[in-house]
Write a structure and sequence with these properties.
Radius of gyration: 31 Å
Shape: elongated
Number of helices: 11
Order of helices and strands: HHHHHEHEHHEHEEEEHEH
Largest sheet: 8 strands, mixed
Number of strands: 8
Helix content: 55-70%
Strand content: 5-15%
Strand order of the largest sheet: 1-7-6-5-2-3-4-8
Oligomer: single chain
Length: 281
């Protein structure tokens, strides 16, 4: 039963009682007919105002359903409206292949949001953005565990997204987030290329290790992954040669399994700066 229906039933029942009470009081206090009419009309007027309030509430709900962006901040409303206008413009006026691809990708957004709402997995387009959103959400004392295939210097230094990603790691580590990163190397020669990055991360309070892919047997389930058990969120990269699309999951079983895999890989890894590492270099 809706609130409006409940209110109408309540007013109706109260009105019957009120009218009966008015006539009873008129006998007891010898009220005139005009006085009784004034009392009944006053009640009718209050009922009318109640209906007006219900109508305004229903109108507000209809407007929000018709224009859901009204619930957003002004800045977000502008962004959403500009996006819809651009979508309509492209939909009406352009038929180029690249435009069709862009529109098709845009039309997948509804599916992505539905998956996120019900806690399902979905594909996200940018490994750096996904990692930064998760990392920024963490509070001091929480953990961020990463098995990373970003083993080239340019993955951390060459562009705005890369450098912002690195800076956010250092800020969060300084705030007390426990960041553990295991770099996955294909061969020993790659150590010299990633050494500068590992040194910088260790100096910024990140727990840095590395492991060789050939030593992990079947322990590495994906090309790379990052998890926060506290936030029940995982970011999975399926391809070693792809830094674009990643799978986002909030499945408890998957997160628990990835945490277990992380611990297995960590046991096989070499801590940066340790005696074994010195022997390797």
């Amino acid at each position: 039963m809706s609130k409006a229906m409940f209110l109408r039933i309540f007013i109706g029942l109260f009105g019957i009682v009120f009218i009966m009470l008015t006539f009873w009081l008129s006998v007891y206090f010898h009220l005139t007919t005009s006085t009784k009419l004034v009392i009944i009309l006053a009640f009718a007027l209050s009922t009318f105002f109640a209906e007006v309030i219900i109508a305004i509430d229903n109108l507000e709900k209809r407007l929000k359903n018709a224009f859901p962006s009204l619930e957003l901040s002004l800045k977000d409303q502008i962004a959403v409206n500009e996006t819809i206008k651009l979508y309509n413009k492209l939909k009406r006026g352009h038929t180029g292949i690249s435009t069709r691809i862009a529109l098709a990708d845009f039309e997948k957004i509804h599916h992505v949001l539905c998956q996120a709402e019900k806690g399902g997995d979905f594909v996200f387009h940018d490994i750096y953005s996904a990692s930064m959103i998760l990392l920024a959400a963490l509070e001091p004392g929480q953990s961020f565990k990463v098995v990373s295939n970003l083993t080239k210097r340019f993955y951390w230094k060459s562009g705005k997204d890369m450098s912002e990603h690195a800076k956010l790691n250092y800020r969060q580590a300084k705030r007390g987030i426990h960041i553990e990163r295991i770099f996955i190397l294909n061969k020993k020669e790659e150590l010299s290329e990633i050494k500068e990055i590992m040194e910088e991360q260790e100096e910024n309070n990140i727990d840095v290790s590395y492991a060789f892919r050939g030593d992990l047997d079947k322990m590495l389930p994906y090309a790379s992954f990052a998890i926060s058990e506290e936030q029940t969120t995982g970011i999975i990269s399926h391809r070693e040669d792809s830094l674009g699309k990643v799978t986002i999951t909030s499945n408890n079983e998957v997160i628990t399994d990835l945490a277990s895999k992380f611990d297995d890989i960590k046991r096989q890894s070499i801590k940066f700066g340790s005696g074994i590492h010195q022997a390797n270099t």
